[in-house]
């Protein structure tokens, strides 16, 4: 029995945090009131604000309870909650920052490098990170590391968008890899 009471108290507490106070649940004596069209009605007492809301057949919704004085808006509560949910859902969609991969080989020609650099520039301008793989087959994996870095730099010089190296060139199982992102 005791555990159930504390759980219910926690649930009601979190519900109070999620939903704003409306109409008679507002405890502040004086409010800064915003009208239904977004106009500022100024500082009003709670009674005056409630009368205005009743005249317009709308609800008085406390938007910012921590402000001094608290801010309330005259609006339809159902519509207000719908718009707030819509705003929160649209803000939750994160910008997809993918890691795109470009694979270059030791013998890749200049024209092909230019095409891969152009595609890399497009991805960087979209805000994505780009992983540049220098693919090394067989014995090529044991070539001098400075030589391999030069080959990787040859491709990176052709990238037209300003970038910074997020992860410097280092050996990987496929060969050598560097990750770049927009500066």
Write structural notes for this entry:
It is a single chain. With 183 residues, this protein is an alpha/beta fold. The protein has 2 domains: 2-91, Translation initiation factor 3 (IF-3), N-terminal domain (Ubiquitin-like (UB roll)); 99-182, Translation Initiation Factor IF3 (2-Layer Sandwich), CATH 3.30.110.10. The strands form 2 sheets. A 4-stranded mixed beta sheet has the order 2-1-4-3. It has a 4-stranded mixed beta sheet with strand order 5-6-8-7. The chain has 5 helices and 8 strands; from the N terminus they run H-E-E-H-E-E-H-E-H-E-H-E-E.
Number of H- or I-type helical stretches: 5
Strands of the widest sheet, in order across it, are 2-1-4-3
Distance from N terminus to C terminus (CA atoms, Å) equals 59 Å
Shape: rod-shaped
Helix content: 25-40%
**Level-2 CATH architecture of the largest domain:** Roll
Mean pLDDT: 85
What is the CATH T-level topology of the largest domain? Ubiquitin-like (UB roll)
User: Any idea how many domains?
Assistant: 2
Helix and strand element order: HEEHEEHEHEHEE
User: Which value, in Å, is the CA radius of gyration?
Assistant: 30 Å
Major beta sheet summary: 4 strands, mixed
Q: What is the CATH H-level superfamily of the largest domain? A: Translation initiation factor 3 (IF-3), N-terminal domain
Q: Report the sheet-strand fraction.
A: 25-35%
Poorly predicted regions are 1-16
Structural class by secondary-structure content: alpha/beta
Total E-strand runs: 8
């Amino acid at each position: 029995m005791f555990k159930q009471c504390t759980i219910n108290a926690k649930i009601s507490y979190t519900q109070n945090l999620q939903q704003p106070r409306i109409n008679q649940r507002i405890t502040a004596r004086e409010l800064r009131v915003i009208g239904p069209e977004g106009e500022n009605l100024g500082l009003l007492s709670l009674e005056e604000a409630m009368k205005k809301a009743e005249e317009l057949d709308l609800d008085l919704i406390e938007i910012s309870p921590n402000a001094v004085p608290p801010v309330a808006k005259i609006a339809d509560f159902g519509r207000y909650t719908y718009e707030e949910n819509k705003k929160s859902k649209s803000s939750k969609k994160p910008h997809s920052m993918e890691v795109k991969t470009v694979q270059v080989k030791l013998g890749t020609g200049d024209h092909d490098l230019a095409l891969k650099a152009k595609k890399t520039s497009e991805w960087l301008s979209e805000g994505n990170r780009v992983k540049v793989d220098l693919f090394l087959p067989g014995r090529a994996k044991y070539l001098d590391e400075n030589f391999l870095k030069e080959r990787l730099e040859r491709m990176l010089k052709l990238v037209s968008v300003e970038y910074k190296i997020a992860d410097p060139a280092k050996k990987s199982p496929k060969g050598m890899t560097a990750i770049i992102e927009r500066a």
